[in-house]
Amino acid sequence: MIVTKIEIQKNNDDRVNIYLDDRFYCGMSLEIVMKQNLKVGSDIDTAKLDNLILDDEKYKATEKAVKYISNNLKTTKQIKDYLKKKNYSEITINYVLEKLKEYEYINDENYAKSFILTYSKKYGRLKLKSLLIQKGISELIINSLLEEVKSDNLELVATKYLKNREINSNTYVKLSRFLYSRGYDFDEINSFINRLKGR
């Protein structure tokens, strides 16, 4: 088929519309068109052009993913979900994830370390694990990293909660519920409350 027209898109100077035999065929980045030396009069088969379209999709998806992670760290799952919402194909998504890993733009273990460092003074191990699983971090990574979380964080959280509160049996019940909601397990909670009661 013959390329009969290449026009710059109205809302994006970096992309062009390509017409084959006077019919619109696809949009594509100007960079790929220039690299492939596509021009009006070029004879190209659609199979080759479809491969260029896939390359173009990969290029666009990678750009979007890099922009998405530019403000803060993201997990592999978060980026995958983001690209799925943008309707990119599985082939393109896998390509982008591999590229981002290759350039160390995503690293689930580093993400989990940073997350735990930020939130371990606020949440217990159970809550941290639950939140990280939701973000797609493997349990193997989570369990390994949570071994290093200090158990005395519970005491800090509880002390802050108890500040300016009257200490009585009702307060202990409310404290127990609060700490459980923050992801501390019952053994940790009961041990701490028993120490408070002087047992």
Overall SS class = mainly alpha
Q: What is the CA-atom radius of gyration, in angstroms? A: 27 Å
State which percent range the strand residues make up: 5-15%
CATH hierarchy class name of the largest domain: Mainly Alpha
Largest sheet: 3 strands, antiparallel
Total DSSP E strands: 3
CATH-assigned homologous superfamily of the largest domain: Winged helix-like DNA-binding domain superfamily/Winged helix DNA-binding domain
Give the topology string: H per helix, E per strand.
EEEHHHHHHHHHH
* Mean model confidence by pLDDT: 89
Per CATH, which architecture of the largest domain? Answer: Orthogonal Bundle
State the helix count. Answer: 10
Through-space gap between termini: 86 Å
Number of domains: 4
Predict the CATH topology of the largest domain. Answer: Arc Repressor Mutant, subunit A
- State the assembly state of the protein chains: single chain
Describe the protein's architecture and organization.
This protein has 199 residues and is mostly helical. The protein has four domains: 1-44; 46-106, Winged helix-like DNA-binding domain superfamily/Winged helix DNA-binding domain (Arc Repressor Mutant, subunit A), CATH 1.10.10.10; 108-146, no CATH class; 153-197, no CATH class. It has helices at residues 30-35, 46-68, 76-85, 90-102, 108-119, 125-134, 139-146, 153-162, 169-181, 186-197; strands spanning 3-9, 12-20, 23-29. Strands 1-2-3 form a three-stranded antiparallel beta sheet. Helix 2 (46-68) packs across helix 4, helix 3 packs antiparallel against helix 4 and helix 6 (125-134) runs antiparallel to helix 7 (139-146). The longest helix has 23 residues, at 46-68. The termini are far apart. The mean pLDDT is 89.
